[in-house]
Amino acid sequence: MKATEPVSIAIAGVGKIARDQHIPSIGRNPSFTLAATVSRNTHVDGVENFATLDTFLEERPDVAAIALCVPPQVRFTMARQALMAGRHVLLEKPPGASVAEVHTLKALAEEKGLSLFATWHSRFAPAVGPAKAWLAGKTVRRATIVWKEDVRRWHPGQAWIWEPGGAGVFDPGINALSILTEITPQPVHLTAAELEFPQNRHTPIAARLAFIDAAGAPVTADFDWRQTGPQSWDITVETDAGVLALSEGGAKMAIDGVAADHGPEAEYDGIYARFAELLATGASDVDVSPLVHVADAFMLGKRIVTDPFFE
Ligand code: NAP
Fold first, then answer.
1. Distance 241 CA to ligand 1 centre (A)
2. Is the predicted pLDDT of residue 2 greater than 60, yes or no?
3. Nearest CA to ligand 1 atom 18
4. In angstroms, what is the span from residue 53 Cα to ligand 1's centroid?
5. Of the residues 70, 147, 169, which should be mutated to test ligand 1's pocket, given the most ligand atoms within 8 Å of the CB?
6. Residues designated catalytic
7. Which of 120, 162, 121 lies closest to 267 in space, CA to CA?
8. Residues 175-227: pLDDT tens digits?
9. Pairing state between β 302-306 and 188-198
10. pLDDT-derived band of residue 62, with 50, 70 and 90 as boundaries?
11. Per-residue pLDDT at 26 exceeds 80
12. Treating both helix axes as pointing N-terminal to C-terminal, what angle do 128-135 and 170-183 enclose, rounded to 10 degrees?
């Protein structure tokens, strides 16, 4: 592959995020050509589709990379198969249904000399980089995450989110944790959690988490999928030098109540620019820290059974 030629890439799982973000971002990035899809049920006009990953891997050895936009429960098997077949892999978040899966994939990519990119799209939100830069060198006194949205609005018909491995409210909540772990100067660890499970579902509809950072500052997170009306995706960090407020999932930032400047929304364009960089340099980018916090919440969390959920 010459450096100037676009990389042929396939997408597996043509669902909401593939159509809303991956396909448009690949189309805008001259480093990539969308060469194929793997979908059991649908296709993208003008792009060859394969009903199974097996047939795709067999029939299209020319496609160097694949973006896995499938639910987390099937991600590991597909990623492993693609790496074994010599393809670079981009993983939607969360990178696995368990932490160990991701460690295995990372080792396999290394062994095969392939790039593995565990994406965290919220880290590419426009205010996240500026927030990280502003927090560098400051002392955090307290941080608060409020991530509350309406599951019926954002996840209609997605049965997998309620199945084991689907993560429930952590599916959006992990986006907040991906921002927290990116911007705060000290690592955090979970000390306590409460998880609310609808009595007819396998994954939580709400979670309250308590962390401390390495210097002892408290961090709390409140995730809830029952929020109707205005939606909240907010992170507030109190420091020795002022209060940072990130809102709209990292799209906006204010310091002591004054809005700060940053670029426009381009999360997935940022993801594909980064993937191109990884491919060009033969590197991988696999950070499991947001997933570790979710796993810890399931390990340490007190289980509360709540009202059944019906879509
Ligand atoms: P989705 O709309 O349910 O699409 C997932 C697609 O994966 C399905 O359309 C299906 O496509 C395919 N698939 C393959 N095996 C499957 C299985 N066993 N069960 C169900 N679907 C299967 O989900 P999504 O919202 O795009 O989310 C996919 C991943 O992206 C998730 O990990 C999610 O956390 C992440 N994500 C989603 C969003 C969002 O806004 N929705 C944002 C960021 C990240 P085929 O019919 O083509 O086979």
1. 41
2. no
3. 74
4. 15
5. 70
6. 93
7. 121
8. 999 999 999 999 999 999 999 999 999 999 999 999 999 999 999 999 999 99
9. parallel
10. very high
11. yes
12. 40
Assigned token pair, 193: 């959690």
Give the residue whose CA is nearest to atom 39 of ligand 1. 17
C-alpha R_g of the chain: 20
> Is pLDDT of 1 > 50?
no
For residue 95, give the nearest of 116, 111, 112, 109 by alpha carbon: 116
Report helix, strand and coil shares of the chain as percent, to nearest 5: 35, 30, 35
For residues 136 and 269, give the distance between their C-alpha atoms in angstroms, rounded to a whole number.
Answer: 25
Work out which ligand 1 atom sits closest to the CA atom of 174.
34
Amino acid letter, 273: A
Mutation pick for ligand 1 pocket among 16, 75, 77 (CB with most ligand atoms within 8 Å): 16
Query: How confident is the model over 236-251, as a mean pLDDT?
Result: 98
Determine if the pTM surpasses 0.85: yes
Which residue segments constitute the domains of the chain, with CATH numbers given? 7-121+267-286 (3.40.50.720), 125-263+295-306 (3.30.360.10)
Whose CA is closest to atom 15 on ligand 1? 70
Residue 117, CB-side half-sphere exposure with 13 Å CA sphere: 28
Residue with the smallest CA separation from ligand 1 atom 9 is 15
